[in-house]
Write a structure and sequence with these properties.
312 residues, alpha/beta, two-stranded antiparallel sheet, globular, binds ligand 9Z3, CoaB-like_sf, DNA/pantothenate metabolism flavoprotein C-terminal domain-containing protein, DNA/pantothenate-metab_flavo_C
Length: 312
């Protein structure tokens, strides 16, 4: 028998930074409520499932965080306040454009008149960096972006519930954009060894339990008035729409965005109870640097507005 969501929370302790993050989220939401902003929670990146309490090994879920990070930028651009709830060390908004050695390659070292070294942006890179930096600074100054991190499945579920408690005050003005890749399986806390599993003890048998379906309380209890968007990730085209529709029928939220692992960068399918449509990028659009998240966010903004005004 899979555990219920209530049992999950009773059996798996909250992350140590939950109270601190809750307070940050509460303060952020209070500010956005005062401004009358629309707000979106973007979840991004994969959850880990630890195999030991003092974790050396864990099972991971596929997701670099590209979908979430780029979507967060487009939501900001569309006027939304954004809570970006992401796997720590996954891709983040703005930073994603200048990650790793790409950033260092944009810089140059020269000597100032007194002989001490100065670091500056290469003139040839200014046009590339300026728009990113301007948007990043604008997001910071407007205080419309809040980032909160998770690592494990349990961290994710605790944080998600805490954020929902704050979002419920926004009613239909809140959107939840659940792009994180969340594990379906986990090792319950009481079945997990404390210390590193030892190879000298032979091949370990690892028993994974089913994670309770958290969309159910989320939609029906935590944020019943919000516009909830979930993603369905499959690898087999033949079952994608069926699985997306089944999620919609089970949880009764607003829209499921279906995507295939292989083509997720250039094609998604929007599935609602009454409709099915597609967003697609042509090869040449991709070459020009267009991102499918721009189309996804534009579509959702329109649908969310109809939902708020009751005209959908
Ligand atoms: C997605 O389907 C996302 O679009 C991706 C984005 C994870 C494929 P990247 O981060 O990839 O840009 O590399 N997210 C949802 C995945 C998921 O776990 N869905 C569950 C399911 O399919 C339902 S919540 O059963």
């Amino acid at each position: 028998m899979p555990s219920t969501w209530e049992e999950f929370y009773a059996e798996n302790p909250p992350p140590s930074d939950l109270d601190k993050n809750k307070q940050r989220v509460q303060e952020f939401c209070q500010k956005q409520l005062e401004h009358g902003s629309h707000i979106v929670l973007v979840t991004s990146g994969g959850t880990t499932v630890p195999l030991e309490h003092l974790t050396v090994r864990f099972v991971d879920n596929f997701s670099a965080g590209t979908r979430g990070a780029s979507s967060a930028e487009y939501f900001l651009n569309s006027g939304y306040a954004v809570i970006f709830m992401h796997r720590i060390k996954s891709i983040e908004p703005f930073v994603r454009h200048v990650m790793g050695s790409k950033f260092l390659d944009m810089l140059q070292v020269s000597s100032s008149s007194n002989g001490s070294p100065t670091i500056s942006v290469k003139p040839s890179e200014v046009d590339n960096l300026l728009p990113i930096l301007s948007k990043y600074k604008a997001a910071q100054e407007s205080q419309k972006l809040l980032q909160v991190g998770f690592t494990t499945l349990s961290d994710y579920l605790w944080l998600l519930r805490a954020i929902c408690e704050c979002l419920s005050a926004f009613g239909s003005r809140a959107m939840l954009y659940l792009a994180a890749a969340v594990s379906d399986f986990y090792v319950p806390a009481e079945q997990m060894p404390t210390h590193k599993i030892q190879s000298q003890d032979g091949v370990p048998t690892i028993h994974l339990e089913l994670v309770p379906k958290i969309l159910q309380p989320l939609v029906s209890l935590w944020v019943p008035s919000a516009y909830v968007v979930s993603f369905k990730l499959e690898t087999d085209e033949n079952i994608l729409i069926k699985k997306a529709r089944s999620a919609l029928n089970t949880y009764k939220h607003k829209i499921v965005i279906g995507n295939l692992l292989q083509s997720r960068r250039n094609r998604v399918v929007f599935v609602t109870t009454h409709d099915e449509s597609e967003a697609r990028l042509t090869h040449s659009q991709e070459q020009q640097g267009l991102e499918i998240e721009e189309l996804i966010v534009a579509h959702l903004k329109r649908e969310h507005e109809k939902f708020i005004s009751g005209t959908n």
